[in-house]
Design brief:
By secondary structure, this protein is mainly beta. The protein has one domain. The protein has 2 helices and 11 strands. The radius of gyration is 23 Å and the shape is elongated.
Length: about 260
């Protein structure tokens, strides 16, 4: 994480110096714009890993859900075709996971059905090199680069149930902030005679706050308006070892459709 931040800072300083050297050129004009759009988010987990709170032998169905993003884009020209683009963005990311876990314990076979809904708030700082087909009012734009991301808060709704024969059941229903260190997780064992036992499962945050990765973008600028498609792929493991253990790997994927307006 520190290496990525250091590399991003070095690139920013280098490109800013190049941009300053072009200030005598009328074409070298810094452009500030706003961006808003939809965000599709999902978790990328290697096959064979379980996302439903570290149960073994799980098969998970990860679904992409739609959130939103908004922010400011700053485009710094380096020459007639290349520019450095940075800015600051807020995003609301939503994702879902459903899983069925097979359990064999004490000569009893049963399954646990789980559903998890994620809604998290993020601040993102991108650093991209952009190619402009020309500098006219209407032109294509393509670029790639790096980003750093800070998870600021959110909500996870986790529900799970299992029926044991004859007539015993386990239930989990919880709602928590995935970044909160004070989280505590429990499950409940209900028997035929309406007796319920409460068991402690674990504690701690579910996600790490910081992420970083690679970005790509393709767009078209017409007059002062902009339409683009953007992709962010996190390269860091965002699963917190407090609950997910050290052998669990989870990366974030976000696909965005952006509408924008450039002020100058």
């Amino acid at each position: 994480m520190k290496k990525i931040l250091f590399l991003s800072l070095c690139l920013l300083c280098s490109f800013w110096g190049l941009a300053q050297s072009n200030t005598n050129n009328e074409a070298a004009k810094v452009t500030v714009g706003i961006r808003i759009g939809g965000t599709g988010s999902m978790f990328i987990v290697p096959k064979g890993q379980n996302i439903s709170l570290n149960h073994p032998m799980s098969t998970s169905n990860r679904t992409m859900k739609i959130g939103m993003t908004a922010g400011i884009a700053v485009d710094i020209p380096l020459n007639d075709h290349i520019s450095l683009q940075t800015g600051l963005y807020y995003s609301l990311q939503r994702a879902g996971v459903s899983a069925v876990t097979a359990i064999a314990q004490n000569d009893t076979d049963y399954s646990i059905a789980s559903e998890i809904k994620f809604k998290t708030h993020h601040a993102k700082l991108p650093l991209m090199v952009m190619y402009h087909s020309n500098r006219s009012s209407n032109h294509f734009v393509a670029g790639a680069g790096l980003f750093v991301d800070l998870g600021m808060g959110g909500r996870v709704i986790y529900s799970s149930s299992a029926v044991l024969h004859p007539g015993n059941s386990y239930l989990v229903n919880t709602d928590f902030n995935p970044y909160d260190k004070g989280n505590k997780y429990f499950y409940y064992h209900e028997t035929q005679d309406d007796h319920t036992d409460k068991y402690f499962y674990g504690k701690g945050p579910l996600f790490k706050r910081f992420d970083a990765g690679v970005s790509a973008e393709l767009g078209y600028q017409f007059s002062s308006f902009y339409l683009g498609a953007h992709l962010d792929f996190g390269v860091l493991n965002t699963a917190h070892p407090a609950l997910c253990k050290d052998n669990y790997l989870q990366r974030n994927l976000n696909i965005q459709v952006l509408l924008g307006y450039n002020f100058n």
